[in-house]
């Protein structure tokens, strides 16, 4: 199917969802998303699942003790990061400015190989507005407008690379409630070298942000155009790897 036809079909599905505004149409839209914008951009590759409460897949044999790993979004669990540390003896740069994330880290007695920064990850550094959690039990602060009056200090990927004197990121995990769009755009704009990205792509059917399901599809297309392929997908959790990294992967 040509891309122009695919986009037209996608827009029609989105319009149907808006018109009906029911659960069945949302399922229909997600099926269309998978059909047009996930499966065509996927590549079979050997992966391994790491973590328990927060589980993500990474390309097998892609991480070692020297890997530079950035993980943004602590929430209430860091079993993924702990699994990386346990298996590969790697150091993880962990970021979360929210009271939820800070409290989770405060309770951790074993912080071996964790460098925790009480900062958010964004496309640029400085004070940035956040929105209150949509679910208080989950406690995830989201990308929000200035009117909500919640401000956290943030840092960008290029600033982190400079801070740690690195020239590439081996693994980037971002579960940041809407900030993923600008972070990924910054990778493209600043031509940053990021080998592998684990990301939950949020949209306004899930949390109160200004990104739609169509925006999520466009983000996947942009990643594809910049040389990334989907090697893992579960719901809206994705792992993207640079295509050249997949050559000879075993």
Automatic annotation (TrEMBL):
One Pfam short name: Methyltransf_21
Residues annotated as domain Methyltransferase FkbM: 138-229
SUPFAM superfamilies linked: S-adenosyl-L-methionine-dependent methyltransferases
Domain of life: Bacteria
Gene3D superfamilies hit by this protein: Vaccinia Virus protein VP39 (3.40.50.150)
NCBIfam families in the record: fkbM_fam (TIGR01444)
Name by which UniProt lists this protein: Methyltransferase FkbM domain-containing protein
Organism: Methylocella silvestris
